Inverse folding.
């Protein structure tokens, strides 16, 4: 939007100009919250806006002549910036001229030398009055005090400008009056009008009756604004019909020409060449000067010509980049088209040299869009992801259309702020944890860890156990997890023989809003410890008595006496059992298979063997350290099962010595011995 106000210069401070909220259709109550502010390139802030009501008032009186110099239209441009959302309005203030300046002359008095022999009708140049006011408030007419020898006439130059001339209406007589004192008055068209005057002193001379005459009343020239010192602008030429010194012409700038312009240019007094002197530090494209040609007569005569110098612009100003508004950091979920910054781009050169192109690198998710005149908006053109890129250095390149072009760059740092758009992530879907049984209470089992690429609270992860049951018990009674670091601890000891494995889930949740979460399954495998000794299943001793096995009296070799059967509740090598004879009443009679536990006879039994035997069997597992159990087996050698089992506390019992069988054997052995002895005796006798 755009609004134009008109205000008279010198309006007092605090005077009302208008209400910007009503004029632009903006709710005045939102101005303060939207950080309403006025931006201008002027060094002074001439206007003030009330952020509560939108009332616009004068902050400092304006001097139009000082602000706009000789411009016909005096305009002040302001931009009204509102944020949330970002809006830009253009305001123009047209400063109206008032008649606050009186016409003035550059000289305190003006001298004219007039030869006495000049005839009536001769004309003399008079000084122009300056009035910085505009239009009808500037100089409108001149008057001359009454005099019988002179009167005033207005003349028009080739460019249409008017100037006063003093016209001789009656011949002069120096001997009667050598000096004439006149008063030239300039009046403007204001209401009421203002005026200024300058004394004109006419000295009547006795010689030199021809003034120099220029070839042209107006000289025009074009030069480049960067022309070096000494560059020829134009050469003026005037002729004087007089002879000798009265016809010799010298050139100079008229005293009515601006002192600044007289310092910028030099004029050769003899050749009339006008050259550049120094730097052309002007903003106006057209410069106006008066050149005076005066002869060298005793009472020199002069005439003037106007010199109009048009300054051709060269591209000597680079574009200027001003950051009017910048929103940083930008949330990473900002939608494409979000306004990030407002840029003002100015080039002081006029025409094509002041036109610019503006661009940023193509590989960025941003673009520049033209806004109001000389303004660009920097907006997002794609999706942002802080986890990939946390900030952008955006280089704005502005190039004007001059030849050669001038380029200006400015870099903006736009930071991307985090939003909670990433859930925690575990490194794997499941974790396997191995723990030995009989662990101490509070034992550390494992530490799960999840990463969250977000930052701050959005990236701070906390851990909890998801509710579940294990073997009929609540998970919380078995385990606990550290909220901060995910360390898992046992709240009670595990028993491999009761629970060999179970699983549960750990949930990782960030502290964003809304919070995001992820879960992982943890498999717990309980490893066995050798905490159970082998249990003897067979043979069984009751009430501390010895288990008895009955073996036939004459059992053969490798006869199976009994088989020791044992079991171990532990697992793997802790449950691998081996069988050993710890004690035997006759070590030559029995042997034990170490793996099967079978107790067998080593040889055939004899009638001379003890009837009772006692062996102690040790059953040992392969744990570290190993555990063992023992069983005592009593072995009774009998062909039939006795009615009462004997006591196996003694070491053994031999069979009776004089039974029938034993007597028969003794007699047989004695007979054989006698026969053998008789035979030996017979052989000895025969030999002798």
């Amino acid at each position: 939007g755009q609004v134009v106000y008109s205000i008279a210069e010198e309006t007092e401070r605090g005077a009302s100009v208008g209400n910007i909220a009503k004029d632009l259709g903006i709710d005045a109550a939102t101005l303060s919250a939207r950080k309403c502010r006025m931006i201008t390139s002027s060094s002074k802030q001439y206007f003030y806006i009330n952020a509560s009501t939108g009332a616009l008032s004068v902050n400092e009186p304006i001097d139009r002549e000082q602000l706009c110099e000789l411009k016909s239209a005096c305009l002040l441009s302001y931009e009204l910036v509102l944020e949330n959302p970002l809006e830009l309005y253009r305001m123009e203030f047209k400063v109206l001229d008032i008649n606050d300046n009186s016409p003035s002359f550059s000289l305190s008095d003006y001298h004219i030398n007039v030869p006495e022999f000049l005839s009536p009708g001769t004309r003399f140049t008079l000084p122009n009055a300056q009035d910085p006011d505009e239009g009808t408030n500037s100089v409108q007419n001149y008057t001359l005090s009454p005099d019988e020898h002179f009167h005033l006439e207005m003349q028009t130059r080739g460019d249409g400008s008017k100037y006063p001339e003093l016209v001789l209406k009656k011949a002069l007589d120096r001997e009667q009056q050598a000096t004439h004192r006149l008063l030239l008055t300039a009046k403007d068209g204001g209401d009421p009008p203002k005026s200024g005057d300058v004394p004109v002193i006419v000295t009547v001379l006795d010689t030199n009756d021809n003034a120099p005459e220029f070839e042209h009343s107006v000289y025009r020239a074009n030069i480049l604004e960067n022309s070096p010192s000494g560059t020829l602008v134009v050469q003026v030429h005037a002729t004087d019909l007089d002879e000798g010194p009265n016809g010799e012409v010298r050139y100079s700038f008229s005293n009515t020409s601006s002192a600044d312009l007289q310092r910028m240019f030099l004029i050769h007094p003899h050749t009339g060449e006008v050259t550049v002197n120094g730097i052309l530090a002007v903003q106006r494209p057209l410069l106006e000067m008066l050149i005076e040609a005066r002869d060298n007569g005793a009472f020199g005569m002069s005439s003037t010509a106007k010199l109009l110098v048009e300054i051709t612009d060269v591209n000597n100003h680079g574009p200027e980049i001003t950051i009017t508004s910048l929103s940083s950091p930008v949330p990473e979920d900002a939608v494409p088209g979000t306004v990030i910054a407002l840029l003002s781009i100015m080039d002081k050169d006029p025409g094509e040299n002041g036109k610019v192109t503006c661009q940023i690198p193509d590989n960025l998710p941003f673009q520049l869009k033209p806004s109001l005149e000389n303004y660009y908006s920097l907006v997002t053109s794609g999706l942002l992801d802080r986890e990939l890129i946390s900030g952008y250095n955006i280089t704005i390149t502005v190039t004007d259309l001059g030849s050669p072009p001038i380029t200006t760059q400015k870099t903006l740092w736009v930071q991307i702020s985090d939003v909670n758009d990433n859930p925690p992530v575990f490194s794997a879907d499941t974790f396997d944890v191995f723990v030995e049984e009989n662990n101490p209470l509070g034992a550390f089992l494992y530490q799960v860890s999840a990463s969250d690429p977000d930052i701050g609270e959005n990236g701070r992860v906390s851990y909890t156990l998801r509710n579940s049951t294990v073997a009929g018990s609540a998970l919380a009674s078995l385990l606990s997890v550290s909220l901060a670091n995910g360390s898992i601890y046992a709240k009670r000891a595990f028993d491999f023989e009761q629970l060999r494995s179970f699983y549960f889930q750990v949930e990782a949740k960030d502290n964003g809003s809304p919070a995001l979460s992820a879960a992982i399954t943890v498999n717990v495998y309980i490893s066995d410890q050798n905490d159970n000794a082998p249990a003897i299943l067979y043979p069984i001793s009751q009430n501390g008595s010895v288990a008895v096995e009955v073996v036939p009296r004459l059992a053969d070799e490798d006869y199976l006496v009994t088989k020791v059967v044992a079991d171990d509740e532990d697992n793997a090598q802790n449950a691998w059992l081996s069988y050993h004879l710890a004690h035997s009443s006759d070590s030559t009679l029995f042997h034990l298979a170490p793996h099967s536990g079978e107790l067998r006879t080593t040889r055939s039994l004899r009638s001379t063997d003890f009837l009772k035997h006692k062996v102690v069997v040790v059953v040992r597992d392969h744990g570290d350290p190993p555990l063992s159990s023992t069983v005592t087996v009593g072995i009774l050698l009998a062909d039939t099962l006795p009615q009462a089992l004997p006591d196996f506390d003694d070491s053994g019992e031999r069979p009776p010595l004089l039974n029938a069988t034993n007597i028969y054997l003794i007699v047989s052995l004695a007979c054989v011995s006698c026969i053998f002895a008789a035979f030996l005796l017979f052989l000895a006798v025969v030999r002798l």
Notes: The chain has a mean pLDDT of 87. The two ends are 167 Å apart (CA to CA).
